[in-house]
Design brief:
Its main location: Golgi. It is found in: Golgi apparatus membrane. By secondary structure, the protein is of the alpha/beta class. The strands form three sheets. The chain has a seven-stranded mixed beta sheet with strand order 5-4-3-6-9-8-10. A two-stranded antiparallel ribbon has the order 1-2. A hairpin with a 2-residue loop joins strand 1 and strand 2. About 20% of the residues have low confidence.
Length: 603
Amino acid sequence: MKKFRRWQRIFLLSLLCLTVLAPILFVSVGRKELISDLSNLRYRRDSVQLNAIEQEEGEGLKGPKLVVYDEKELGSRLRYSTSEENNDSKKYGNIGEIDRGSKSSQRGGNMSIPLERTNHESREENRQIPQETVTSRSEAKGQSNQTTVRHDQNMRSPVRIFTDEKVMQMKDDLIRAKAYLSMAPPGSNSHLVKELRLRIKESERAVSAANKDSDLSRSALQKKRSLEVTLSKASRVFPDCSAMALKLRAMTYNAEEQVRAQKNQATYLVQLSGRTTPKGLHCLSMRLTAEYFALSPEERQLPNQQRVHDADLYHYAVFSDNVLACAVVVNSTVSSAMEPEKIVLHIVTDSLNLPTISMWFLLNPPGKATIQIQSLVDFKGLSANYNSTLKQLNSHDSRYTSALNHLRFYLPDVFPQLNKIVLFDHDVVVQKDLAGLWSLNMKGKVIGAVDTCREGEPSFRRMDKFINFSDPFVIKRFDAKACTWAFGMNLFDLQEWRRHKLTALYNKYLQLGHTRQLWKAGSLPLGWATFYNRTVILDRRWHKLGLGHEAGVGLDGVERAAVLHYDGVMKPWLDIGIGKYKSYWSKHINYDHPYLQQCNIHE
């Protein structure tokens, strides 16, 4: 019994040793075979690279080798190529296009047949037989590049086409879902209503930032399918198509009304922002005014005031209550002039802004040019004549009833000693020398201006849009098809003005416009009436319009123009100004000035 147990223990121990040693033995044998296979594979790869290097070096010293296959080798290569074609066609379909035509050439009495292959096949052949060369190196390289380009174009062409079908379908489904939701009874809290609300919320989030199908994530596509399933349920609950049509028509009408209201509100806000004074500009006015009243009366005097009445000099006038606008007009005019010492600039403002503008030009004199700053109170006789009439005009826009806006019709009285003057609006920038205006032949006319009577252009204006041609008084004196022109940069012959007594004619038209509706508010229709048939049309390169309300003005015309006019409400000193035109204005402002920095006025 003891011997049996002893042999039993020996047998169990031997089995245990066998189970431990057998796997170790098998792993060691398999590892040797694996190492030998890897060494063979590494040797084959290294030999391919070395052979390729030898071939390139040999080609650099000698001509390219021409290898001619015998019939047996050619057959094997053809079979290899055919098998590769089949594999590639199964893998890529029609993407890798293979030319099956062959070319034959006679070299030394033997026939060599180069086959045009895909880029993938060429790489496989180079791994197997690196020395094989059928044509010259340049020809083979050209064929390889051509095949590669064709392969890449075919691979990329489907990717470049972007569609938005799924995005548009999701938006349409959202409209349908909202229509179904609105058709549910008020206060309904059914399972379908809850599901519709959930699907609408999910789909709106998914499609909010998507412009094309590629922007949709997998979760967005899943939500799209979920919404379609919910819509299918809703169509069975609400099968009445006429009710759906009525609901969609009502939704369309409401959407149009909302768009119209939003447009009206946007227009109102733009107009409102155009009439308000920016906080920085108000701050600048306060600081300059405080500095001005800190000066003694002698220190407030501007230099060279004896030249302001010299009729032989070039006189430019601007009527404004905006200190930055006046600074740009003055700086741009002087910097663009060939002879700035001949320039005299006249600024007329109201009594509130006289200290502000005076202090600015005391701190920033205009170089060799002369500047004169006057207030409206300096023309007491004129103020009594037209202030009462302007207050009777029915307009809520201060620009139309402003005394500074209508002061242009009293130029001979404001500058009694001058014969000619150029009047600027305060929203202009001068880019070129304007001395040529003073030698212009006025042909007995009073005002020189650029025309605005070319249809199809942003600056186009028609007289019947501003003047009431249904009134007999207007019909007798004016032609509705007469060419219109623009204020902003105008040359005036003050001698001819005085001879024709046009200021009195303006006052007559102003009074008539108060008693009956003859023209719209503002100075432009009154100007057309006052200077009717007394206008000489200037070349359009003198004056470029539309930079304050039309973003489509070409930059080529802007660069060539002598004067740029930011007419409209989007002035360059406001945040709503058109960005691509602001630089022409802002380059004439020194934003490093301490007062501008303190008032947070930046470019």
